[in-house]
Amino acid sequence: MNIIEYFETENKEIWLEQLKECQWGAAKFLVKLIEENNFYGTLGDGAKLYLMENEGELVAFCTLAPKDCIDDENLIPWIGFVYVMKEYRGNRYSEEIMQHACDVAKLQGREKVYIATDHVGLYEKYGFVYMENRVDVWGDDCRILYKEL
Fold first, then answer.
1. What homologous superfamily does CATH list for 2-109?
2. pLDDT tens, 47-63?
3. Phi, psi of 35 (to 5 degrees)
4. How distant is the alpha carbon of residue 1 from its chain centre?
């Protein structure tokens, strides 16, 4: 397994096509942000899209970004769009790619990372701690979790 940053690779078209194969609604939104050149406009300058790949096949992905669906400039950075392709599930690849994002955030001098989710119990098993619920930018109730780095 190898983790690469989408915007630093020369094979963006190939990776984008594989991202398009993902049926998850948030992945469709992510693809739209990329195709409309609005990735940084939505997620903030310096946002990263990490791809875990195995011999040219997309395994998992996530973002590390200054912004997410919770509008709060005091909470930075956010891990988002965490997804493992169906055929690779059950191997804790989401933990591995999120840990990569955490390592990058720590190298950037961050002390915490945040996740906004509606899942209960998923991210907690990877060391995230519930902080509070807030209404996100779309008006939905959202759980905010954090992880000390």
1. Gcn5-related N-acetyltransferase (GNAT) (3.40.630.30)
2. 999 999 999 999 999 99
3. -65, -30
4. 18
